[in-house]
Every structure is written in C-alpha cells, then in structure tokens.
Design a protein that fits this description.
The chain is α/β, with parallel strands linked by helices and about 325 residues long. Helix content is about 40%, strand content about 20%. The chain is built from 11 helices and 11 strands. A hairpin with a 2-residue loop joins strand 10 (about 310-315) and strand 11 (about 320-325). Bound molecules: S-adenosylmethionine.
Length: about 325
C-alpha cells in the first residue's frame, strides 16, 4: 500500500542528486487507494510545467482547476492566499526552482514505468529533454550542496580559483555540475565521466553550447576505470547511481586522482525510515543504482580508500560525505 507516501522529486543523495523525495506525513490524499498518490504526483508535474503551482488556473481550464483542488486537498498548495505550501517547497532539492518539479515528475514516472516493465536497476533515462532538465537542476543542486558544506571545505572556493584547478564530475549526465562549477570559477577546468552514451552525447552538446569546450572534457568512462593521478581539486560523487561494488573499486582510484588537500564530496542515499516509507526508500535507492548506504559504511569505505577528515553532513535535502586527500 502506498497510502501516506508522496514521491515528488529528485534530490541529491536520496534526493540527489539523486533521488526521490519521499514524505510520509499527514497526506490528505486517498490513503486507501495507492493509485491516488500517482495522480497527486502526476498533477504536480503537469501544473509545474504550466506555471500553475503559483497562480490560480483559469476557470476555462477544468483539468487545471481539478488538479489544483487535488493538490490543495493533499496539502501541497495553499488555497488562500493561493500558492505552494511550505511542505511542497520542503520537498524540493535545495536550490531547485518550483518549475523543476515538471522534469523531476516526468523522470520519476518514466522510471516507475520502466520498473513496472521489469527493468534492471540503474539510471536509464534516454529522453533528451529529461536528460537536459535533470542537468539544469543538477548544476543548481550541486552548487547549493557545496555552499551548505562550506564549513567542512575550508579554502575550497579560493583553491578552485587557482590557475590549473580542476573538478571531476562523476556521472556527469548532461554536464549540469560541470557547467555550473566552470561558470562559478572562471579559470576552473573540468572533467565529466559517464558510462551512458546518450548522456555523454548530450553533455558534449551542452558544454559546447555553454562555450566551455576548451575548459571541460567529457569522457565515456566508468568511474571505476579512472586512471588520472594528482589531477583534481574537487571530486563530486553521487553514490545514488553507483553500485556498491563499483564505488568500492572507484574510491581508491579517486583518491589517487585527487591532489593533496583536494576535497571529495559524495551525496549518499541513506534510509532511516520504517514501514512503508522505509521499504519505498530502499526500493528507490536500489533502482537508481546505488542502493542504500549508511553514513558509517560510507565513512569506512572512504577511509579504506585513503581519504581522511571524513565528515558526515546531514542537510535537509539528504546526507553528504565530505572527505579530503
Ligand atoms: C542522474 S544522472 C546525473 C545527472 C548529472 N549530474 C547532470 O547534471 O545531468 C546519473 C548518471 O550516473 C551515470 N553513471 C552510472 N554509473 C556510472 C559509472 N560507473 N561511472 C560513471 N557514471 C555512471 C549514469 O549513466 C547517469 O548519467
């Protein structure tokens, strides 16, 4: 039974960049009908795409009027004054605009459909529009996570301004993080790696369109095959998409690829929920590819790979590991 579980978005590391925001509190939806929650989620996606989470629908648009009525009943929109509820805003990944719900919901529904059809775990999005919208959201989300972790990353901003500084984006997708970091630090160079050919193609298009072709390299490569040595000052690792065996193989290579004093920031998919919520979170974590990983297990893996100063940073949007070489 899915009653009481609302799945509305994707956020870093359980969100994150990864994954899906699950909230299981006080949903006034049709608790006895699991499909009712799917209608709530789909309505969020539709209205977000029409800008109708922030303004009332016209009475000549009965589908939108009915959708807004549903979201008000579900506690996701306020009726008076009309607009998104605090609860809806809290379900979004840090820094992501309301409109990004449109892409997150369509991505989620596509993933659920693949799951229903019997798909294997792992990120398998091939729709270029969804790949692009995820990239746009990822850039904002990664910058926001780095900002929220800044007390654990002393000197990083200055370091990224140093000539020759370099960033590694693991699972680069549409290169959202590569582009955002390169824009934020004008001399920074970046490498994005991804095992998916459609992602690599899209990432190269986006990097060229951003005018960063001379500063960013996109490789079709697994993180477990990285051979760079002393090459990067900041490494972004979304555990949500990396099976544990891949992560275990990758971390010592990432340690070798990091420069002395470099920071590795890894969003992880944890699960402290119980009951239906806990089962949903574990299933979702499994299907995005990385599975559930506890902060303690992540810390052990990072230390075994040679990283030190390992911190567990619990943010509203999920848990992030910060470590240094
Ligand atoms: C949700 S996407 C990341 C989105 C990205 N940050 C953006 O800006 O678009 C996760 C990515 O991880 C990639 N991935 C999965 N396993 C990988 C591996 N072993 N090495 C590198 N990338 C991997 C997937 O192909 C997928 O593109």
């Amino acid at each position: 039974m899915m009653g009481g579980v609302v799945v509305v978005g994707v956020r870093p590391g359980g969100v994150g960049e990864g994954v899906v925001v699950v909230d299981d509190h006080d949903v006034a939806g049709p608790a006895s009908d699991p499909t009712g929650q799917l209608w709530v989620v789909a309505t969020l996606g539709r209205l977000a795409g029409q800008g109708l989470l922030e303004r009332r629908a016209d009475s000549t648009d009965p589908e939108a009027v009915a959708g807004q009525r549903l979201l008000i009943a579900a506690g996701l929109l306020n009726a008076d004054p009309f607009g998104p509820s605090e609860r809806l805003r809290s379900l979004l990944p840090a820094g992501a605009p309301l409109a990004s719900i449109h892409g997150f919901v369509r991505e989620l529904l596509a993933m659920l459909s693949r799951y229903a059809e019997g798909a294997a775990p792992g990120w398998a999005e091939t729709d270029p529009e969804l790949i692009r919208s995820r990239g746009a959201a990822s850039g904002t989300v990664v910058l926001s996570i780095l900002d929220r972790c800044r007390r654990y990353l002393p000197g990083l901003a200055e370091r990224l301004e140093t000539p020759g500084a370099a960033f590694l984006d693991v699972g680069t997708g549409a290169a959202g993080a590569v582009i955002a970091l390169c824009r934020a630090h004008t001399g920074l160079r970046a490498v994005g790696v991804d095992i998916s050919a459609p992602m690599v193609t899209e990432a190269r298009v986006q990097v060229a369109a951003a005018g960063l072709g001379d500063r960013a390299e996109i490789r079709e490569q697994s993180v477990a095959a990285i051979e760079d040595v002393d090459a990067f000052d900041l490494l972004w690792v979304p555990q949500a998409f990396l099976p544990e065996s891949v992560l275990a193989e990758a971390l010592p290579r990432l340690h070798r690829a990091a420069r002395r004093g470099a920071a590795l920031v890894m969003a992880i998919s944890t699960n402290s929920d119980t009951g239906v919520s806990g089962a949903v979170t574990d299933l979702r974590n499994l299907m995005t590819g990385g599975g559930t990983l506890s902060p303690q297990a992540a810390a052990t893996m990072l230390q075994a790979a040679g990283f030190s100063e390992v911190e567990i940073v619990v943010l509203p949007a999920g848990t992030v590991m910060v470590a240094h070489r």
